[in-house]
Every structure is written in structure tokens, then in C-alpha cells.
Design a protein that fits this description.
By secondary structure, this protein is mainly beta. The protein contains no helices and 15 strands.
Length: 196
């Protein structure tokens, strides 16, 4: 009597390396990377990738990619070693969001033809389809650069500031730029030039 022992895939310590759980990303295609210990029997290991409960692909390599539209996804990964009876490892699961849409940025100014006696109020109304992260007003008045940073959350926000134009020489050009970043690192900017 000969007994052949087989180490099945349930003992290989499967881990999803990327994407990390709750990742928000604009990467396309999205890398899918896993790790596990080598099969002590030398069997070829099949890696099954399920997206939102449906088999997406089966690979024998540790790394693959996933092409998808914007949305929220659940990735489940399991292993088996092709030895009958096939025994699958436990699923390992992460959630992730793909977001390739840049925020929307609209800017307004209280004066469109300012003088060097005015206070200039500038406002940015910003929205995002998933979640905002930050905003930055940068303005350059005759070589003097000012940056104003805001931490944001939610899907809409308003950022405002006021600056004095007092004492600026006539003909000075002011460049106002509002940069907005969402939690997937999509960036949108809106620039406006005003002449005093």
C-alpha cells in the first residue's frame, strides 16, 4: 500500500497585496497582486479572481490586471492546486473603488474689473462624484505667490478668500488658480487672470 500525501491550497497563507482594502484609486488598468507560500509538493497553483461575486479570471501567475469602469468593487481571491479532489482555499476579500472622474471646479469673483482700491473676494464651488480631499487657491500678484490650503470631505464644498488690491500699480496682472483633488488623486484646476 502506497499513500501519497498532498498539501492542499488551504494551507498556503493567501494574502491580497494590492489593491489594499478600501483603496480609492484612478489606476487603469488596476494591478491585482497576491502572495502565498510555495506549495511544498511543487503543484501548480491556480489563482481565481472574483469581482462582485463573479469569476473574472483564473491565473497561475501572482500578478494580473483588472480593467473596469468607475465604481465600487469587491475582490475575492481563492487558490487550488489541481489535485483531485480539488480543495479551494478560503476566500480573501478586499473592497476598492475605481474613480477616474476629476472634480468639477467653478470659480467666481466679486469684481471682474478690479482697481487698486478694491478688496477682491474669490470663491470656488467644487463637487466630486465620490469624495473630495483638498483644495488649494494659489494666486500670483506681481511675483508674490500666496497659497491657501483647505482640507475637504464629502462630495461638495465651497472655498473662499478675500485679498486687498490696495497699492498695486495699474496694469498689474493677477493669476488666480484653484486646484482641487479627490480621494482617488484626480486633480482639476481652474485659472483666471485679472488685470488691475
Amino acid at each position: 500500500l502506497i499513500t501519497v500525501l498532498n498539501t492542499n491550497a488551504t494551507q498556503l497563507g493567501l494574502t491580497i497585496v494590492f489593491p489594499t482594502n478600501n483603496l480609492k484609486t484612478s489606476l487603469q488598468p488596476l494591478p491585482l497582486n497576491v502572495s502565498f507560500t510555495a506549495d511544498p509538493d511543487g503543484d501548480v497553483i491556480n489563482i481565481s479572481y472574483y469581482i462582485n461575486g463573479k469569476l473574472n479570471q483564473t491565473q497561475i501567475q501572482l500578478n494580473t490586471t483588472f480593467n473596469a469602469s468607475d465604481g465600487v468593487y469587491i475582490l475575492n481571491v481563492s487558490l487550488h492546486d489541481n489535485v483531485t479532489p480539488i480543495t479551494y482555499s478560503a476566500n480573501v476579500t478586499v473592497n476598492f473603488t475605481i474613480d477616474t472622474t476629476r472634480p468639477i471646479v467653478n470659480t467666481t469673483f466679486n469684481i471682474t474689473s478690479p482697481t487698486n482700491r478694491d478688496f477682491l473676494n474669490f470663491t470656488g464651488n467644487v463637487t466630486d462624484n465620490i469624495e473630495l480631499l483638498s483644495a488649494n487657491w494659489t494666486y500670483n500678484i506681481s511675483g508674490s505667490i500666496t497659497k491657501i490650503n483647505y482640507t475637504l470631505s464629502g462630495t461638495s464644498a465651497q472655498v473662499s478668500n478675500t485679498t486687498s488690491l490696495s497699492g498695486l500699480p495699474g496694469g498689474s496682472v493677477i493669476n488666480f488658480t484653484l486646484y482641487v483633488t479627490d480621494t482617488s488623486n484626480n486633480v482639476k484646476q481652474n485659472s483666471t487672470l485679472l488685470t488691475v
